[in-house]
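Quick one:
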Amino acid sequence: MAKNKTTQTDNSVTKFIDKVENEVKRDDSFKLIEICKSITGHEPKMWGPSIIGFGSYHYIYASGREGDAPLAGFSPRRDSLVVYIATEFEKRKELLSQLGKHTSSKSCVYVKKLDDISIPILKEMIKNSMDYATKLFPTKVVGEEHQQRRGVSS
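Output:
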């Protein structure tokens, strides 16, 4: 089985965002950090070289492929901010239709700037996506509280 390329690192989230050339995208990244922290209860961590993730869960697909992924995450890419969401969750299509100016693919929502979208709708999407992931893989959620319940220390 191939190893997951996108894993959590110890790189500095702040240093990464400070290197974003576009000032609006840089400011929006710091706003997204606050949004994701408030929803997940987790501090931001770098995943691979360019994804900012919050919390994590362990997934195992029917194919046998497994790995860890952030409960919520985004990346300030050159063309847009990419918010990573689950491919299925409660009211996904409805919420996407209410989000505002964006494009989307299977698990990504692309926005030019946060002013183009409804922040309350984005928050609901992130929460619903996170809830979906934790329901799909309930015993595999990784986080301090869950680890303590299982007797695992940090």
